[in-house]
Amino acid sequence: MTFHDPTSRADLNQGKIKHIDFRIRANFEARILEVEADYQLDAPISGSFSLDTFKLDVQKARVNGRALTWEMGAHDESLGSRLTLNGLQNDSTFSLAFRTAPDATALQWTDPAQTAGGRHPFLFSQCQSIHARSVFPCQDTPSVRFTYTAEVEAPRGLTAVMAAEQLGGQGRGAAFVFKFKMPQPIPSYLFAIGIGNLEFRALGARTGIYAEPETIEAAAWEFAENEKRMIEAEKLLGPYLWGRYDLLVLPPSFPFGGMENPRLTFVTPTAIVGTRGQTNLITHELAHAWTGNLITNATWSDFWLNEGWTTYAEMRITEVLEGADFRDLVYVYHLNEILDAMKNRLGMDAPQTRLKRTDDGDDDSGSFSIPYYKGASFLIECEKAVGRERFDAFIHRYTEKYQFQSLTTEAFLDFFKAELPEVFEKVDVQDWVYGPGMPSSWKMPESKLFNDVQVVLNEYKQGKRPDKARVKDWLSDQVLCFLQGLPETISIEECNYFEDALDLARRNDAHCYSLFYRICIASGDEAIWPRVEAYAGRIGRMLYILPLFRAVAAAEWTRGRARGLMERIHDQHHPVTAGAMDRMLAAAGL
Ligand code: BES
Ligand code: ZN
User: Fold this and answer.
1) pTM score > 0.90 for this model?
2) Which ligand 1 atom is at minimum distance from the Cα of 285?
3) Given the DSSP bridges, would you call strands 264-267 and 245-249 parallel, antiparallel or unpaired?
4) Residue 78 CB: number of other CB atoms within 10 A?
5) pLDDT class for 1, splitting at 50, 70, 90?
6) What string of DSSP letters covers 413-448?
């Protein structure tokens, strides 16, 4: 049977990439990677063979001592171009030499000023979903898995890390060469590299953290409980099969909260808040080691299999580590966010509200979290249908049976039905997975900590402002719920009042500020502008910066400033974030 992934133009029906040996030189002056790569396929190929690329400059192609010819197909702004190698004669290996583009979509080369230390540049990759092709020619689909080794040459003084086993390194002239090996097969989107002024600190036997010397102390404290997190994750999901679990703290322009790169989760420094209050982010990325990295969505239409399952697992582990109250609070906050996106921005029937996606609608408009929380809600209903004990036994069978495989939604449902037929009697699986919006039988869960916030919000709506003492012990997530529940516009005087009463400066939480600035902008608080500009130039986490940008593009007094702001900060951001901002402004007609 032929397999088709709409986001790949590679040939997926002859042979599959099985292993790659990379030699990578990081050229910080030119902001390019110079790469040689030896490929091994799982079957010999004759004639032509196509791979995905994005703005790669191919310089050489050889096989068994012969030169191969190649063609680059037409460039598409999202899919890149198809690289076709010609002249294969029953070959199952080939070698390529190529360079990445300075604007490779997976790579951000930061200025020293964008790092914590301010003295050294930083390079990091973010390949999910389809940006690995801007780093190396590949079958850029989550349905193909390969192992790899890599030698990475970096300027002396900088440390290279990869989402792989670290094998040490050695000096080479003015540079240093780091060696890596990834013995477990991964899909291309989990290829990851980082280079910067990094220090390592062990946290536990299997856990540690890489960060700039300026942040390592705070980061090591914030994430000190990772060993415990692993133990809980293993109880729920089965043995951890990737060896170590380390973290890499990125510069603040990192476009996500976290990225589950195997063995080495990439994490935003905005999660270091001094309270361990955002470590459920790490729980989430760790859970991906099973749901996502071990069992991978076969195509990006099945993304909910990665994120819905991971959010479900995150909530289960958070329940044990931080209690059900905190878990419910975070859950209800995010459910309100996705319901708002469904009702007020996308429409309850929008294709982005379905778990199984068949559209290619963009996710900049607030639909990003739907597969996470609609997916988790579905799995919670399934758990309720058969009870926790049987559901947990099923989870173990699932992670064991499908480890190191990629799965479509349909294959998952077949397995699910064979294992737990009762689920299908009690839960409208078809509606949950293929229907839009939320099923009519679903009810918003209760959260005690959320309800405490609603009491204060209701008092405010009746004219009584909360004083500082009333909210001083609130968790940051309660502050988020409060800001989420405020009217769209308030008076400027109230903006000032709430910043102080909610103690936002002390909390130093970029998430709270994202919501707060949005309210200030909608409310016409002109004095806030310089701070919005500073924030927008520094924080790259898209969940924070895109909605803020949307608010800037919407308000009368900031609309005219949106393009200027974008142009000033464009180069500070990861290409993916900058691209999303471009699209947002275009959509707003700016
Ligand atoms: N795998 C995602 C990040 C991602 C998704 C990158 C889609 C590219 C395309 C990661 O696990 C994630 O979900 N991160 C969240 C964390 C959160 C839900 C705790 C984020 O960055 O907001
Ligand atoms: Zn995730």
Assistant:
1) yes
2) 11
3) parallel
4) 11
5) low
6) HHHHHHH-HHHHHHS-HHHHHHSSS--TT--PPP-H
- Contact by Cβ (8 Å): 300, 130: yes
Give pLDDT, residue 359.
84
Whole-number Å distance between alpha carbons of 383 and 367: 25
Which neighbouring-strand residues pair with 264?
246
Q: What is the pLDDT of residues 466-490, one digit of tens each?
A: 999 999 999 999 999 999 999 999 9
Nearest atom (ligand 1) to Cα of 189: 8
Pairing of strands 32-53, 81-99: antiparallel
Quick one: tokens of 313? 């697992």
Best of 223, 307, 373 to mutate for ligand 1, by most ligand atoms within 8 A of CB?
A: 307
Residue with token string 């309210």: 519
């903006």: which residue's tokens?
Answer: 495
CA-CA distance, 124 to 163, in Å (whole number)?
11
What is the spatial distance between Cα 97 and Cα 95, in angstroms, rounded to a whole number?
Answer: 7
Q: How many CB atoms lie under 10 A from the CB of residue 518?
A: 22
Question: What residues line ligand 1, using a CB cutoff of 6 Å?
Answer: 128-129, 256-260, 281, 284-285, 288, 307, 372, 543
Instruction: In whole angstroms, give the CA distance from residue 496 to residue 511.
Output: 18
Catalytic residues: 285, 372
Domains and CATH numbers, the chain: 11-196 (2.60.40.1730), 198-289 (3.30.2010.30), 295-434 (1.10.390.10), 451-587 (1.25.40.320)
Nearest CA to ligand 1 atom 2: 259
In the reported structure, the alpha carbon of residue 307 is separated from the centroid of ligand 2 by a whole-number distance in angstroms of 5
Q: Is the dihedral of CA 251, 255, 257, 263 positive or negative?
A: negative
Tokens describing residue 468: 């500082």
Task: Annotate 59-70 with DSSP letters as a single string.
Answer: EEEEETTEEPEE
- Label the pairing between strands 57-63 and 66-67: antiparallel
Q: Are the beta carbons of 112 and 121 closer than 8 angstroms?
A: yes
